[in-house]
Amino acid sequence: MEEELQFGTFSIVPARRSLMREGATVPLGSRAIDILLFLLNHPAELKTNAEIIKQVWPDTFVDEANLRVHVSALRKALGDVKREPQFIANVPGRGYTFIAPVNRRSNGVVPAAQPTLRRFRPERLPARIFGREQTIAAVTSQLAKGRLVTIAGPGGIGKSTVARAVIAQTEFDSEIVWIDLSEVATGNLVPTVVASALGILSRSDDISREIAIHLQPRNLLLVLDSCEHVVADIAKLAEDVLAEAPDLHILATSREPLRAEGERVHRLLPLDLPDSAVTAQAALLSPAVQLFVERADACLGGYELTDEDAADVVDICTRLDGIALAIELAAGRLEAMGVAALSRSLSDCFRVLTRGRRTALPRHQTLRATLDWSYLILPLEEQQALRELSAFRGRFTGEAAAAVLSGTEPGDLLAALVAKSLVVVEMASDETLYRLLDTTRLYAGEKLVASDELPDVMARFSAYLCAALESAEQDLYSAPPEEWPEDFAQQVPGLRVALDWAFGASGDALLGVRLTVAALPLFFHLSLLDECLAALTHAIAFLDARPGLDEKSRMKLYAALGWPQLRATNASEQGVAAWTTAWRIAEELGDVDYQLRAIWALWVDLVNRAEPRQGMELAERFAALAPSSSDPTDGIIGKRMKAATLHWLGRHAEARDQLWVMLSEYEHVPQARHSVRFQFDQRVTARIIVARCLWVLGDEGAALCEVEETMRYARDIGHNHSISNLMAEAVCPLALLSGNDAEAAAAIRLLRDHTKALSLDVWHTYADGFEAELHLRAGEYRPCLAKLRPAMDILQHAGFNLFRTFFQSVEAQALSGLGQHAEADGVIDAALAHCDASGERWCLPELLRVKAHITTRRQGPEALDAASAILEAALEAARQDGAGGWERRIRVDLEALAL
Question: Could you read off the pLDDT of 578-625 as tens digits, one per residue?
């Protein structure tokens, strides 16, 4: 007869060492059985930790941590809760007491030979699993091919869910045992925990051997969940057991591969994300969005994705990198905020993404807990490497990582973080790129800020960016972005962070100066002028306070400071002063390149101020200095400057011919870098003047064809400033001059939209001036003046008088239409006086024609005679300039006057 101990729904026969619950065997390890029997034999008595250890491990030194592991396994088997125990109570720091009533009785049951393993029934499996169909099939296929398969991926990506789905959706002939290793404190406890879960009664020192022997005759699938913190011990156990048990299969989940013999690794990727701009219907094709909507529906008791919410939901899923846990946590926050507010709040995702399911493992309750789990099990050197890599925004190369990491073997550290799913690998066409998921980067960035390493890491990161940009300066100047040696555009977010740090309280301002200078071509090529201006302001203030520290950089910074004035409407004098300072420093340093840049910029200013006579002086000075330049293309640029000035001086045929020569010579310049060095693409700027000259010379068809071809070219190269320049100086004015009001209106709208998006205030204001002329043609004189006069004031204040005389002709006609003839005379006479003083002559015949038109509106024969004389003078001016386009308009008025 055997004694049987009964408590609650459980019973155990000490002689058989088998725990039963309602007739079914409960798997429990031998050490846990020993602890249970010892406590059952002393019910309601406090047994100290030392007493229990002495009883269970009589001849072995064991740390109390081992005892806690086995008590935890015992409680789990009994369904006991530490806070409200039914069977085993803990007295902190002392020991344990069995608190439930224990009944003893005898029976005649024959002991079983060995415990029966139960088939695993997956718990907490979601009703639907999104986007993992191919993954589940692939893992199932791998299990059929190999006996050890590891599902690897970052925390919260859904490894355990996939493993459960593989078991639930696949017919296995074997028994299945699932072991959660997340609470195993140290690797040496792995064999004990596995043996306990398998119900193996072992008291030997070689527990792995006992497990192998026990499993030899069994057809078993062993699922080892959350192996990453004990990965080496799991790998050894797996190799040992698989070598002895031919029908054993192991499915492991881990944030890094086990690297065990025969292992097959399936890397679990984030859920697929949709395009950024989509409808609800299109967004719902994405598994990430499907998961969010399903969890939101469960959380709110009803939710359907609308087109209005679609963009915000896509943004949420994208910013959370398609990580399933993060998306679930985000959807759970909809109880307290709307979708749009949730999207805006994700800049602090670790505060927002809390309150996971109560039944979830502790490490899955919050996003921070998930990342804490991954971070804290890293060796200290790898923790430091992860913190340091958080300086990068977006993708980076192995070479870039090596420049920032402080460890002695940066390549090994990077490889280790890749293996542990904390760094993502992306294969480009010709190199390997790396990146941190945004959630990981934000977490590691917090750790970096909390450490004392931030200044050193940011200094290395900033120095790397600076060196990379400096070494690629010629490519950044000369090549389009798709031909850059690396994708520098993706470095812009990191550049912003580096500059903020460098010019901050704990930064390195001199390094910030170097970085600003190195980034200038990148800023301009990508039209990031607002950010450039902010960095320039900091850098110049630093150097101006330290004369002589770095004059070459100061020269470059002042040269760059002159450029933003081309889009700002209140900084013209500052721009001139900046270029004048740059020119002076360049002369002191003997820097021909920057002397040419400064001369060019000051020439542009004079042209924009409608001072072509003075502009010609600078164009000739540029041409005289160009032969001293190391770049022979500067001579070609000088020809363009001179030819453009000739157009504004009214010498259109000369201008056209010289520009044709210049463009022919420029075709032989490989990958010219002057679109950045001299603000605009040189072909576009030259062809703008060619088109204008063609129209003035009387070839309207050729002029419009030139504009159309130039626009195609400008869009192909994608240089926004050149496109705006083309629209403002050629597309809109020539459409108006050609009398095509519909095309002119469309071009004006396009100019307005394009320049508004780019904050190009000057060219945006030009659109108002052109629109005023449409009002004039419609006889809407007051709306014409209401639109035109504010625009002219803005342009004059900004120093942009290039079209002022032409706009004055529109203003004068509107005034005349309102009967304000004297004021109209004053406006047109002022325009003519400016032409006489400045040498401007490009539209002089038109100004005279308008004056004659105003004169005809006065009563009496004297007015007609005066108008006729003015028209004859206009005709003579047009003939003198070869301006057939103006001549046609004048002849029409002469014929009308004769009638």
Answer: 999 999 999 999 999 999 999 998 998 899 999 999 999 999 999 999
Closest CA to 693 of 551, 881, 432: 881
pLDDT for 348-369, tens place per residue?
Answer: 544 444 444 433 444 444 567 6
Closest residue by Cα to residue 327 from 373, 367, 374, 300: 367
- Beta strands in 704-814, from DSSP E residues, in sequence order: none
- Among candidate residues 790, 724, 729, 687, the one with its CA nearest the CA of residue 567: 724
Instruction: Work out the percent of the chain whose per-residue pLDDT is above 90.
Output: 42
Q: Residue 289: what pLDDT? A: 86
Beta carbons of 297 and 331 less than 8 angstroms apart: no
Q: Which residues contact 268 (CB under 8 A, 6 or more apart)?
A: 135, 151, 152, 153, 157, 158, 159, 162
Report how far residue 583's alpha carbon sits from residue 577's, in angstroms, rounded to the nearest whole number: 10
DSSP 16: T
Helix (H, G, I), strand (E, B) or coil at 13: strand
Q: How far is CA 469 from CA 58, 463, 473, 515, 520, in A?
A: 68, 10, 6, 8, 9
Q: If you search the block for the tokens 């309280």, which residue do you land on? A: 505
Specify the higher pLDDT residue, 306 or 205.
306
Q: With H, G, I as helix, E, B as strand and everything else as coil, classify residue 445.
A: helix
Digit-coded pLDDT (tens) for 80-125: 876 778 888 887 777 888 888 888 776 544 333 333 444 444 444 5
Distance CA 843, CA 850 (A): 11
Three-state SS at 631? coil
**Which structure tokens are listed for 896?**
């009308």
Query: Any idea which residue has 């990198």 for tokens?
Result: 321
Q: Are 385 and 408 in contact (CB under 8 A)?
A: no
* End-to-end CA gap in the chain: 138
Provide the H-helix boundaries in 649-760: 652-666, 674-677, 682-696, 700-717, 720-726, 732-737, 741-757
**SS3 letters for 785-845?**
HHHHHHHHHHHHHHCCCCCHHHHHHHHHHHHHHCCCHHHHHHHHHHHHHHHHHHCCCCCHH
pTM: 0.60
With a pLDDT cut of 70, the percent of the chain lying above it is: 87
On whether the CB atoms of residues 878 and 691 are closer than 8 A, the answer is no
pLDDT tens, residue by residue, 294-321? 888 877 778 888 888 888 888 888 877 7
pLDDT over threshold 90, residue 728: yes
What SS3 state is found at 518?
helix
pLDDT given at position 46? 80
Query: What type of residue is 186?
Result: T
Closest CA to 78 of 54, 98, 95: 98
Can you tell me the distance from the alpha carbon of 87 to that of 540, in angstroms, rounded to the nearest whole number? 74
Pick from 295, 292, 325: which is nearest to 309 by CA?
A: 292
Q: Are 95 and 54 in contact (CB under 8 A)?
A: no
- 3-state secondary structure at position 107: strand
pLDDT of 233: 92
Partners of 106 in beta bridges: 3
Cα–Cα dist 805/827, whole Å: 9
Q: Cβ distance 292 to 331 under 8 Å?
A: yes
Separation of alpha carbons 269 and 290, rounded Å: 16
- H-helix or E-strand spanning residue 224: strand 220-225
Residue 835: predicted pLDDT: 97
Q: Looking at the DSSP assignment, which residues form a beta bridge with residue 12? A: 5, 19
The CA distance from 535 to 288, in Å, is 38
Counting every residue, how long is the chain? 899
Instruction: Please give the Cα distance from 760 to 320 (Å, whole number).
Output: 35
**Beta pairing partners, 19:** 12
The type of residue at 733 is P
Which DSSP letter does residue 526 get? T
676 or 446, which is more confident: 446
Neighbours of 397 (CB within 10 A): 16
Pair 118, 220: CB distance under 8 Å: no
Q: Please name the helix (run of DSSP H) or strand (run of DSSP E) that holds residue 97, with its range, or none.
A: strand 95-98
